[in-house]
Design goal:
By secondary structure, the chain is mainly α. The protein has 2 domains: 118 residues, TerB-like (Orthogonal Bundle), CATH 1.10.3680; 168 residues, no CATH class. The chain is 69% helix and 0% strand. Helix 1 runs antiparallel to helix 11, helix 2 packs parallel to helix 11 and helix 4 packs parallel to helix 6.
């Protein structure tokens, strides 16, 4: 991708995160974290212009160099607008304006939108109850972490927003195996406590893919600043692995763990995951070669 596309792509991502008019959301916090860690004066000034309402979608779209950049801009904005659930009316209006500015056909945009909405609304899978053997729980968590890590390897921009539904499904499965009856809000609350809110994760993942080498290794983790992003696959693997093991302990102890202890456990399991990752990296790459986004969506709905 042309390096001249980086600034307008990031600006469009920032506008997408503010499309619903909220100024104090997890999305905006994620944007601020990204800007602070990239540390580029140009990007920082761009963020100020976005916050001040001094940039227009049409002007940004006109700066993009080719069809690939324009499609990337729309996919990134779509992923962000659907990161915390199906996009609302304000976000849909922003996406419609962006589509026209980018010169995308309604057919192409509708196809991408349907995929994003299916992912945003994807239910978790019902699984059996009862306490599993320790090895079965460990394997469930490890295999889920490998799958989400493999999604980061896929070239499809929208694959990133399949990660949170898979992480929520893992929490659901862990809870069910401890005999807990859960709803989606309970699972999201646990993920958000650990800094894995959909909006924050979606924004960080999309921007990482947009700016590539500029952001790689510079974006800090959003879970209390305790971790740092190295690569998308490694970070997602570690986050999913840690989330699964934290959920395991959380439900095993009757949900009687403080927020501080949950975050400490999350950091500890992330560190364990970093040790494990080199041993499963080839497996993640191999699984990515056999994955496609539609199969992941079908698996979420099975």
């Amino acid at each position: 991708m042309n390096t001249k596309d980086h600034a307008p792509l990031i600006a469009i991502a920032m506008l997408a995160s503010r499309a619903d008019g909220a100024s104090n959301t997890a999305e905006q916090k994620a944007v601020d974290a990204v800007v602070a860690r990239i540390g580029s004066p140009d990007v920082t000034r761009l963020a100020e212009q976005v916050r001040g309402g001094h940039v227009r979608v049409a002007d940004l779209a006109a700066q993009l160099s080719d069809d690939e950049a324009r499609r990337t801009a729309y996919e990134g904005a779509l992923a962000i607008c659907n990161a915390d659930g199906a996009s609302n009316a304000a976000e849909q209006a922003f996406l419609a304006e962006l589509r026209v500015a980018l010169g995308l056909s309604e057919t192409d945009a509708d196809e991408l939108t349907r995929t994003a909405e299916r992912l945003a609304a994807a239910p978790v899978t019902e699984v059996h109850t009862g306490q599993p053997p320790r090895g079965a729980m460990d394997d469930l968590i490890l295999q889920s972490a490998i799958l989400t890590g493999a999604l980061e390897v896929l070239p499809d921009q929208l694959a990133n927003i399949a990660i949170l539904p898979l992480q929520l499904r893992l929490v659901y499965q862990v809870g069910q195996r401890h005999g807990q009856r859960l709803d989606v809000n309970q699972m999201k609350d646990l993920a958000a406590t650990l800094g894995l809110g959909a909006a924050a994760q979606g924004m960080e993942g999309v921007v990482m893919k947009l700016v590539g080498g500029i952001a790689g290794g510079l974006l800090g983790g959003l879970a209390g600043g305790a971790t740092r992003v190295v690569t998308g696959a490694a970070v997602t693997f570690a986050a999913t692995y840690a989330l699964g093991h934290v959920a395991d302990q959380y439900y095993a102890q009757g949900r009687n763990i403080s927020v501080e202890d949950l975050k400490a456990l999350f950091a500890r399991f992330q560190q364990d995951a970093r040790t494990i990752y080199p041993k499963v990296q080839e497996q993640i790459q191999a699984q990515a070669r056999g994955l496609n986004l539609q199969s992941v969506i079908a698996g979420l709905r099975s």
